[in-house]
Design goal:
The complex is a heterodimer of chains A (357) and B (631). Chain A contains 10 helices and 12 strands. Chain A is α+β, with helices and mostly antiparallel strands and 357 residues long. Chain A folds into 3 domains: 69 residues; 116 residues, Cupredoxins -  blue copper proteins (Immunoglobulin-like, Sandwich), CATH 2.60.40; 89 residues, Immunoglobulin-like (Sandwich). Chain B has one domain: Cytochrome C Oxidase, Chain A. Chain B is built from 19 helices and 2 strands. Chain B has a two-stranded antiparallel ribbon. In chain B, helix 4 packs across helix 8. The radius of gyration of chain B is 25 Å and the shape is globular. The two termini of chain B are 31 Å apart. The chains are: A alpha+beta (357), B mainly alpha (631). At the A-B interface, helix 2, helix 3, helix 4 and helix 5 of A face helix 4, helix 8, helix 10, helix 11 and helix 12 of B.
Chain lengths: 357, 631
């Protein structure tokens, strides 16, 4: 059977959606919107406005120039190899047809210049609008790019909340956020098209982007600068929600991890976490080991996130188990090694991780 | 003007490369070298195209597992690298090497041995890259190889080293070709061909070659610093040791953006040539066209930062580059208007070369307009590094360069081979290419706006990008089919096509005055030029140069601006040493991937080969002495 199929398998795989394990899983859940044409924030709105104006002008130019070209093709007489070259055209003195053609070209150049000035003015105005986002009382987020995940530190100067999370940002609708961008390794780029254009995360430099979500919803962002093997699998969920819901979420994130009830499977799971390789790379606040470690994402409130592995898999028990046991086969190149755990230990660890709301 | 058979045979014997395998590696005739160059670049074009088709098959469906992340990253890196470094820039130089001497009435290019060396070094560099690819050491850091991803810390295998060394090969080749072309154009034009009688294609080549001399050193610096960073830990690009990651981007794009115009300006010359012939009149506004070419050449150096709008450069600085990026549209727009005016006032003869040029109008116009969008900082923040840019660059490069290039092949193929390409097959190829191209690349604009980033090996189905991606793949397959038709057409016409004669198009430039294919010396008698289109405009006297020796490879050197005869020069004989020197250089370059000591020891055979290359022959020196006329 396998032998019969072998010669055609790549054709089938190319033309039919036979999915690899990691992506097949993704197909089961909804993901956030990722579309520059449907702005959910004022910055993306400004850019879309400029886009519409630019497209209108460019479309006009396209129609006029191509129309002129087609008209020329339609009206010009037909020639052939025998047609002698028209050398009368070498005289472009005053009053000649050649001079009139040159005037037409000059007019075309003048109109083009005017169009370019309009475009430049539009660019300048849109740039000013982007720079004028009011940021008093803004939320501060430090976002660090790693290959291939996002580390976030929230610092709210108003409520004084401060906490770490990963791969999922929550933003209160209507309040600006100043996101400071850094990179821990190579260049990444933050791009959540529904909210704003992109900005690079540069090693050795700090950049800053200002966004505001004006509509609730879940928006997907994806690293936009090629950053190596799993560049494709470096996504970020941004949840824009009403200020009250955001406050509730932030309160939850602020708290240390819940302690599992004594004697429960989860309590044993916490021990497994501490005693296995997990704690070497991941922090869970309140669980001692791993405090301050930044090799892998902070897991203090893992269960509150929608996805794992930087937006690659839905956050469900089966996927989490598969990820823990053999991350490298799901996402080749990832720093997380395959973890050998006894089946009971794995189940208890999963039970513990599921308590981390 | 003809000469008698004995003189013609003598001329042929003097200029012909020797026969046999030793002759094959000793060849220095510009037409032989150019044909090899064209075939090699076309081979790389097909290879790069196959890589593109594989990528399109992978992206035809969401979450496809046909090609994994690692292979896909190699594919797009190799595709971009191949098309930019091994196809688009060198193919234009290859055409120029063939056509420029014929268009300006010269018997050869200047520095014919260096020309041969430049070809060999290009070939070896390209082959090296593909051999590495087949051994799973294909470059995988993108054709732009941004640091620090391409530094040793994040790319510890040899993949990036092969890529960086390939850059060294091609930049050596491209700069040598630029020197050959500039010298040929400025010093070897037939008497009477003043600068303002030079064909527009030759102007395009001159502008391009000068740009090469200014643009390439930036990438020489960048890639050499990358190589030494990787090889001997020099830390130009490590921020933790005081290096800087944006330095690479500035240097790379200071070369990389002019490179787009290195690819785009020679085709502007193809278009001017083809339109003039098939509209049966010289192009409107010769001086305007020349000034537009020169303006493009200057402005091309002032807009590299528009590739870096998403970095942390200051806003006011970015605005300057927006203005420059918008401004460069103007010279191109003016040229398009001149061409439309030419078509408007011409008598049109619709043949395949003209069809490809007309295809250029629609496609390049769209590509140019999306370029204006990318020049805007706010729009670029959304569009940068998305499929919108993929669409834009293919509209510009395929529309702006490959369409005119195919037109140029249909136009000059009879000169290269003596046979016309099939017209019916040519029209089919054009139609398939034009439709396939738009089906493949137009949807990518929409995909980019819908949020699809570049350089991703797959995408989840919920993004809704499936339909457009599938459409794009179908278009790509149509392009593949069109290229296949072209290969069939070439294979059928090479020997069996309609015999062309000297001038199948009744065109105006000098290359059509000689046999197809031209004799080894190009011109039996070197012409004297009296007008812009020498074959259309009645000539004056004298009509040709007399007194050049047929027994030696003697050429006439003329003055830069007015092409007044200055002196006679003997070009060197055919020689295998450029080939040997290229082999030695290749050993040095490839060796240095593995050990810095290869640069030290590898320099010895290179020096030895070059010494033999330049070793003077006693009898030649004596001949030359005796031929000199004392003042």
């Amino acid at each position: 059977m396998a032998i019969e199929e072998a010669p055609h398998h790549w054709v089938r795989r190319a033309l039919f959606p036979a999915c690899a394990a990691p992506c097949a899983a993704q197909a089961q859940t909804a993901i956030g919107a990722q579309d520059a044409l449907r702005p959910a924030g004022i910055q993306a709105g400004h850019i879309l406005q400029l886009w519409h104006g630019t497209v209108a002008l460019c479309l006009l130019v396209f129609v006029v120039v191509l129309g002129a070209c087609l008209l020329a093709l339609w009206r010009a007489p037909r020639g052939s190899r025998q047609s002698p070259a028209d050398l009368g055209t070498l005289d472009d003195g005053p009053g000649t047809r050649e001079r009139r053609l040159l005037y037409a070209v000059a007019w075309g150049g003048a109109l083009s210049s005017a169009g370019l000035v309009i475009l430049l003015a539009g660019d300048v105005l849109a740039g000013r609008a982007l720079a004028q986002l009011p940021v008093s009382g803004a939320l501060h987020i430090e976002l660090t790019g790693h290959s291939w995940w996002w580390e976030a530190h929230y610092r709210d100067p108003v409520s004084q909340r401060s906490f770490a999370t990963a791969n999922e940002l929550h933003l209160p609708v209507g309040r600006a956020a100043i996101i400071t961008l850094r990179s821990d390794d190579v260049i990444h780029s933050l791009w959540v098209p529904n909210l704003h254009g992109k900005l690079d995360l540069l090693p050795g430099r700090t950049t800053e982007i200002r966004v505001r979500a004006d509509r609730a919803g879940t928006f997907r962002g994806q690293c936009a600068e090629f950053c190596g093997l799993q560049h494709t699998m470096m996504a970020l969920q941004v949840v824009a929600e009403a200020p009250e819901r955001y406050a509730a979420w932030a309160d939850g994130q602020q708290r240390p991890a819940a302690s599992p009830g004594s004697g429960s499977a989860a309590q044993h799971g916490a021990q497994v976490f501490r005693n296995s390789q997990c704690a070497g790379c991941h922090a869970i606040r309140g669980v001692a080991a791993g405090e301050g470690v930044r090799i892998g994402p902070d897991l203090t409130h893992l269960a509150s996130r929608q996805t794992i592995a930087a937006g690659m898999l839905p956050n469900a028990r089966g996927h989490l188990a598969g990820w823990i046991v053999d991350a490298p086969s799901l996402k080749p190149g990832v720093r997380m090694p395959a973890i050998a755990l006894a089946p009971g230990d794995l189940q208890d660890l999963l039970a513990y991780l599921e308590t981390l709301h | 003007m003809n000469i008698d058979a004995a003189d013609e045979a003598q001329l042929e014997a003097t200029w012909r490369d020797p026969p046999g395998w030793l002759g094959a590696i000793s060849a220095v005739n510009h037409k032989t070298i150019s044909c090899r160059f064209m075939v090699a670049t076309f081979g790389f074009f097909v290879a790069g195209g196959i890589l593109a088709l594989l990528m399109r098959l992978q992206l035809a469906q969401p979450s496809n597992s046909l090609i994994g992340a690692d292979r896909y990253n190699q594919l797009f890196t190799m595709h971009g690298t191949t098309m930019m470094f091994l196809f688009a820039v060198p193919v234009m130089q290859a055409f120029a090497i063939y056509l420029v001497p014929l268009m300006i009435g010269a018997r050869s290019v200047a520095f014919p041995r260096m020309n041969a060396y430049a070809f060999w070094i290009f070939l070896f560099g390209g082959v090296m890259l593909y051999v590495a690819f087949f051994f799973d050491t294909g470059a995988d850091a993108g054709w732009f190889a941004y640091v620090p991803l391409s530094t040793f810390k994040y790319s510890p295998t040899k993949r990036v080293d092969f890529w960086a060394q390939m850059i060294t090969f091609t930049e050596v080749s491209a700069m040598m070709e630029a020197i050959v072309l500039i010298t040929t154009i400025l010093k070897m034009r037939a008497p009477g061909m003043t600068l303002n009688r030079m064909p527009l294609f030759v102007w395009g080549v001159l502008v391009t070659s000068v740009m090469v001399l200014f643009a390439l050193p930036a990438v020489v610096l960048a890639s050499t610093a990358l190589i030494t960073d990787r090889l001997v830990d020099t830390r130009f690009y490590s921020p933790e040791h005081g290096g800087d990651v944006l330095l690479w981007q500035h240097l790379f794009w200071f070369f990389g953006h002019p490179e787009v115009y290195l690819i785009f300006i020679p085709p502007l010359g193809f278009i001017s040539t083809i339109i003039a012939t098939f509209a049966r009149r010289p192009v409107v506004g010769y001086r305007t066209m020349v000034l537009a070419l020169i303006a493009t050449g200057f402005l091309a150096f002032g807009l590299w930062v528009h590739h870096m709008f998403a970095t942390d450069l200051p806003e006011l600085g970015k605005l300057f580059f927006t203005a420059a990026s918008l401004l460069i549209a103007l010279p191109t727009a003016v040229q398009i208007f001149c061409w439309i005016a030419t078509l408007w006032s011409g008598r049109l003869w619709f043949r395949t070369p003209l069809l490809f040029v007309l295809g250029f109008f629609a496609i390049l116009l769209l590509g140019g307009l999306t370029g204006l969008m990318l020049a805007s900082v706010p729009l670029d923040l959304q569009l940068h590094d998305t499929y919108f840019v993929v669409a834009h660059l293919h509209y510009v490069l395929l529309g702006g360069a490959v369409f005119p290039l195919f037109g140029a092949v249909y136009y000059w193929f009879p000169k290269f081979t003596g046979h016309l390409l099939g017209e019916t097959l040519g029209r089919w190829q054009f139609a398939l290419f034009f439709i396939g191209f738009n089906v493949a690349f137009f949807p990518m604009h929409l995909l980019g706006l819908q949020g699809m980033p570049r350089r991703v090996y797959t995408y989840p189905a919920q993004t809704g990008w499936t339909g457009l991606n599938l459409l794009s793949t179908i278009g790509a397959l149509a392009i593949g089919l069109s290229v296949l038709l072209f290969i069939v057409n070439v294979a059928r016409s090479w020997r069996g096509g309609v015999v062309a004669g000297n001038d199948p198009w009744s065109a105006g430039t000098l290359e059509w005055s000689v046999a197809s294919p031209p004799p080894a010396a190009n011109f039996n008698v070197v012409p004297v030029v009296h007008a812009l289109s020498p074959l259309w405009q009645p000539g004056g006297t004298p009509s040709h140069v007399t007194g050049l020796s047929g027994e030696h490879r003697e050429v006439l050197i003329t003055s830069i601006a007015d092409a007044e005869p200055d002196h006679r020069l003997w070009l060197p004989a055919s020689s295998p040493w450029p080939f040997v020197a290229a082999i030695a250089t290749t050993i040095l370059f490839i060796g240095s991937i593995f050990s810095p000591w290869a640069v030290v020891w590898g320099a010895i055979p290179v020096a030895a080969a070059c010494t033999m290359w330049f070793w003077p022959k006693q009898d030649m020196t004596q001949h030359r002495r005796s031929s000199e006329v004392p003042p």
